[in-house]
Amino acid sequence: xxxxxxxxxxxxxxxxxxxxxxxxxxxxxxxxxxxxxxxxxxxxxxxxxxxxxxxxxxxxxxxxxxxxxxxxxxxxxxxxxxxxxxxxxxxxxxxxxxxxxxxxxxxxxxxxxxxxxxxxxxxxxxxxxxxxxxxxxxxxxxxxxxxxxxxxxxxxxxxxxxxxxxxxxxxxxxxxxxxxxxxxxxxxxxxx
Length: 192
Fold this sequence. Notes:
Structural class: alpha+beta
Helix content: 10-25%
Strand content: 25-35%
Largest sheet: 8 strands, antiparallel
Number of strands: 15
């Protein structure tokens, strides 16, 4: 699928105070992240949040990006929110979050709780300014026509980037400090 707009960003739209409150809450719930027991794919700590305030804050941006990018994809639910801490040398290598054949290709991802629905739109929110960490770049693999693109727009604290869940992306290793982020997924019926 060729996309005219591979992602939409909103710079520093979540207040510093709200970002700090989310970090404080998330840090209390952290556990080691494992992706199919392959530590060479992902090293980080995660927690799962269901704070209605976050959903209410972010949902208008998801709807706006979906329309602004011309995707206009149907979704009817947002999955639980993933809070992630990337410390020194931690990363998440290339992966998509979803797609039409996501569950058959990425068997480590369970359909439990999705009721046959697939991830369509991914949201990433940076909770700290990039001056507080080194490395940790969010990158997209836009294929032969677009190549690998670093998403610099997400670096300021409180910034949001929204993109199709089937686009391969990664978080490069942290070289100093700590990067905190949120990830959310809008899900809906499988692609038609």
